[in-house]
Amino acid sequence: RILLNRNFGMGTLIATLYGFALYGDPALLPLFLQTLLGYSALDSGLAVSPRGLGSLAAMMVVGILVNYVDGRILLALGFAGFAYSTFLLSHISLGISMWSVAMPNFVNGFAGGFIFVPLTTMAMSQLRKQEMGNAAGIYNLMRNIGASVGIATVTTFLVRGSQIHQNYLAGNVTATDPTAMSAIQGLQSRFFNGGASAFSAQQDALGAMYRSIQQQASLLAYADNFRMVGYLALFCIPL
Question: 3-class SS at 108?
Fold first, then answer.
């Protein structure tokens, strides 16, 4: 019955969607950094750690603004900033620097601070004191469910997206495509000059081309997922 309260029902829905976006994004970044860019676990952690600094800074700012600014405006700003940070990450490439990951993470964490406090406050604002216990349980449960579904969804989409993009990319690597053949011949010459036999050089060139296709397909799948999380954040603004 408590979900029939408009503020609490809508707040719980938004918290579920936010949990999806909040935990789906961090699940992707360490995978991307370590599998495609070759980061160590430590470097990967350093690249995503500015998210916590952003949240810390935002909490101090929001603690002041919440007394003067409508909570709905703070929420809208938070989700807009969250979407902006994920759209920045959707432009990743295999040649980006650590700063290109750290800066969007700081924005992401800062935007999250504008969401968490106002959302919880407004969701509980119209409930009676005796309803608070059950309401907090339901609210946190749904946010955790959203997080679990988010992690499962983005990892599934990552695998499927990689397969789809690989099919598209591999379709252009044919004997009739001059660009692809030129690249393969260049690789073959490099391996041959490195001491490989003609047959081994050809096989190594094809293997290198296939690895490149797999990397680019995975990269595009990561970008698709970051973009999806950004659109989900924008969807929360009218709610």
Answer: helix
Rounded Cα–Cα distance for residues 208 and 213 (Å): 9
Percentages (nearest 5) of helix, strand, coil residues in the chain: 85, 0, 15
Q: Tell me, what's the pLDDT at 105? A: 93
Nearest to 108 by CA among 23, 1, 178, 39: 23
Nearest of 19, 30, 77 to residue 232 by alpha carbon: 19
Q: Which amino acid is at 233?
A: A
Condensed to tens digits (0 to 9), the pLDDT of residues 177-191 reads 888 888 888 888 888
Q: What is the token pair recorded at 230?
A: 């950004």
The 8-class DSSP code of residue 5 comes to S
The residue to which tokens 């909040």 are assigned = 22
Q: Average per-residue pLDDT in the chain?
A: 89
Burial 168-201 (b: 16+ CB within 10 A, else e): eeeeebeeeeeebeebbeebbeebbeeebeeeeb
Task: DSSP for 29-92, please give it.
Answer: HHHHHHHTS---HHHHHHHHTHHHHHHHHHHHHHHHHTTTS-HHHHHHHHHHHHHHHHHHHTT-
CA distance 140 to 119: 12
Tokens 């106002």 belong to residue:
118
Distance CA 72, CA 60 (A): 18
pLDDT tens-place string over residues 89-131: 999 998 888 899 999 999 999 999 899 888 888 888 888 888 8
- Dihedral sign of CA atoms 6, 230, 224, 50 in order: negative
